[in-house]
Write a sequence for this structure.
């Protein structure tokens, strides 16, 4: 937090600048609180780099602008006006002023601005606020009395947490410290946070760097105000935490490398540094969710045990639940929002035990019903029946939607949100509520959530392929799940000339509920260009979710040369089943598992071998070459005891 000299105090109190009918109030105003590691040596601006730096004030009037620059790389800020999260603010390298609010009621408002990108994106320089003419800033609420210092890596920064795709890579636009476990933990405990973290950093070795170690590892740069600048050094008296949480080690052992002895040596020295500068602080060593190797975990436990044995009883070990994919992954396999929330709930409970702090009741999980019409929100504590559930607001794709909310009768920890419209698979859903919206029977405060992304598990009914079957009068459309309803009149088939084909009927294929068979009046020639489309309420899954209208036609595969359409044999074992999910593939009867198949081959009626491959695990045969439709072939199945032949028409 900033400290102000007497001269600066006088200047900040007396000086405001009127520019073109607006009032500029400098960063050093006593009505501005700045929390985090900052450099305040320049009177024109304050510099900061680490995630989570906060700027808080109250302002009069209808609008607010912020003079700020990000000269090195792009950064993102989160702005909260009157407890409502605004759109993220993108700071390009050319940015000099941003609009935080406009068109507000002419009264006093609260504002909080948080840096949600990490220090690798470079420093930001904050100059001050611009207000309506004649308006001024007011003293904001004081920061919480509880203080937690988080030291970590990309997990602490919220790397890639805004996406749910492990194959994506880092972008500043998808990083969000506010949704990561550290911020969530502090918010659950109503504590001020202070962050020193950056992606790729380790205790002795940074990601992908030599096993011998890195010169800019955490132990070497921790006493600096900024990780990449030797000066100014940090003044530890500016933030004395009640708890320090250290989450490092994932990068030290990245790429299956790392030296446990060097890691332990640096960790021991780092703990000495922490204890020297924070003599009364509780220190918690964490094993993070991305790396829970048993050797590493045991090493951390030994470090804590050694300190305890030496008389430092205020040092603990805590292991966060490892991610297993069930909650999804962010970019580059980083924790998802759901994983971060899970880890934050765990850590907040642990810190509450060792500090005696009462944690706030908080949101545990969200879910969407299979039919997309109900959203369930689970809290950590039982809610009182007269909670103001109607003040829980919902947006879909950033648009407010009507809903009716009620506490669940069978589980009063849960709020059920009933929608007037159905959620689609691609929808982005968020809920919002303030701190006084809900009450618990045990009197706990409920942590406010200004914007909670809801885990959207709706799985729409989607067409995958459509293939013409021999002799050209049936099209089989495969879907991503079982189909329970088909309306033939809502289906449409067209050719290149945009002429519609007559559809006689449509039904779910017997024995293959994920396939819809469409029967056409006139046979389609192999190779014809045919397209399928359908309107809303044409097809629904067995879960009653309708397929999204297929407005852009899907081309039907009309080369039906390798789909089995007829089988015959002398015994019940010789059954061959078509498999429309893979052209040229068919399955043998499951009864053949017991026969112990040693080989399968396919030959034409003239005795020529047809190249094919056999998968013994699922009894599928895949043809490697094209065969004309209507050809007679034989499947030769050799088992441990006999050779069997099945006649098929392809």
């Amino acid at each position: 937090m900033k400290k102000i000299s007497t001269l600066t105090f006088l200047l900040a109190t007396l000086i405001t600048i009127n520019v073109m009918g607006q009032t500029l109030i400098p960063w050093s105003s006593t009505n501005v609180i700045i929390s985090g590691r900052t450099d305040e040596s320049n009177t024109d601006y304050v510099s900061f780099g680490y995630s989570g730096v906060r700027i808080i004030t109250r302002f009069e009037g209808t609008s607010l602008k912020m003079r700020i620059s990000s000269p090195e790389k792009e950064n993102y800020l989160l702005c909260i006006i009157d407890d409502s999260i605004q759109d993220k603010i993108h700071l390009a390298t050319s940015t000099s002023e941003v609009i935080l609010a406009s068109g507000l009621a002419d009264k006093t408002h609260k504002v909080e601005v948080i840096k949600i990108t990490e220090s690798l994106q470079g420093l930001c320089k904050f100059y001050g606020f611009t207000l309506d003419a004649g308006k001024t800033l007011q003293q904001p609420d004081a920061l919480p009395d509880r203080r937690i210092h988080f030291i970590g890596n990309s997990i602490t920064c919220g790397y890639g947490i805004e996406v749910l795709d492990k194959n994506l890579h880092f972008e500043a636009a998808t990083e969000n410290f506010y949704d990561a476990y550290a911020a969530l933990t502090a918010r659950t405990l109503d504590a001020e946070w202070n962050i020193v973290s950056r992606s790729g950093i380790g205790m002795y070795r940074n990601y992908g760097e030599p096993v011998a170690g890195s010169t800019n590892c955490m132990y070497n740069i921790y006493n600096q105000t900024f990780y990449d600048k030797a000066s100014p050094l940090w003044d530890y008296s500016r933030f004395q935490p009640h708890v320090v949480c250290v989450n490092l080690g994932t990068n030290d052992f990245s790429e299956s490398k790392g030296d446990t002895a060097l890691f332990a040596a640096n960790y021991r020295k780092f703990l000495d540094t922490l204890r020297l500068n924070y003599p009364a602080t509780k220190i918690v060593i964490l094993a993070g969710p991305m790396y829970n190797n048993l050797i590493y975990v045991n090493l951390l436990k030994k470090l804590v045990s050694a300190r305890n044995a030496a008389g430092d009883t205020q040092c603990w070990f805590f292991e966060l639940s490892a991610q297993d994919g069930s909650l999804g992954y962010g970019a580059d396999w980083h924790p998802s929002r759901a994983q971060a929330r899970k880890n934050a709930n765990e850590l907040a409970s642990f810190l509450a035990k060792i500090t005696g702090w009462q944690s706030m009741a908080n949101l545990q999980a969200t879910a969407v019903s299979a039919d997309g019409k109900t959203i369930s929100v689970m809290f950590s504590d039982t809610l009182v029946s007269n909670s103001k559930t109607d003040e829980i607001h919902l947006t879909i794709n950033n648009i407010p939607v009507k809903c009716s909310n009620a506490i669940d009768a069978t589980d009063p920890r849960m709020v059920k949100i009933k929608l007037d419209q159905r959620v689609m698979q691609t929808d982005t859903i968020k809920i919002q509520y303030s701190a006084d919206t809900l009450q618990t029977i045990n009197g706990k405060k409920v942590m406010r959530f200004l914007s909670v992304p809801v885990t959207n598990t709706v799985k729409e009914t989607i067409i995958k392929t459509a293939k013409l079957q021999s002799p050209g009068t049936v099209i089989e459309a495969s879907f991503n799940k079982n189909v329970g309803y088909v309306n033939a009149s809502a289906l449409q088939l067209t050719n290149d000339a945009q002429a519609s084909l007559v559809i006689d009927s449509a039904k779910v294929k017997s024995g293959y509920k994920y396939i819809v068979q469409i029967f056409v009046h006139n046979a389609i020639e192999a190779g014809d260009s045919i397209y399928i489309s359908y309107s809303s309420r044409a097809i629904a899954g067995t879960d009653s979710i309708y397929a999204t209208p297929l407005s852009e036609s899907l081309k039907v595969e009309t080369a039906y040369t390798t789909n089995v359409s007829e089988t015959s044999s002398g015994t019940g074992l010789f059954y061959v089943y078509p498999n429309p999910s893979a052209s040229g593939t068919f399955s043998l009867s499951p009864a053949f598992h017991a026969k112990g198949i040693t080989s399968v081959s396919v030959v034409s009626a003239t005795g020529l071998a047809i190249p094919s491959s056999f998968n013994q695990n699922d009894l599928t045969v895949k043809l490697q070459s094209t065969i004309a439709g209507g050809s007679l072939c034989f499947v030769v199945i050799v088992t441990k005891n006999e050779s069997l032949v099945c006649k098929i028409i392809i």
Summary: Confidence is low (pLDDT under 50) at residues 1-16, 560-574. The domain at 363-452 is CATH 2.60.40.1220 (Immunoglobulin-like). The longest strand covers residues 107-115. The chain has five domains: 6-138, 146-355, 363-452, 463-556, 566-649.
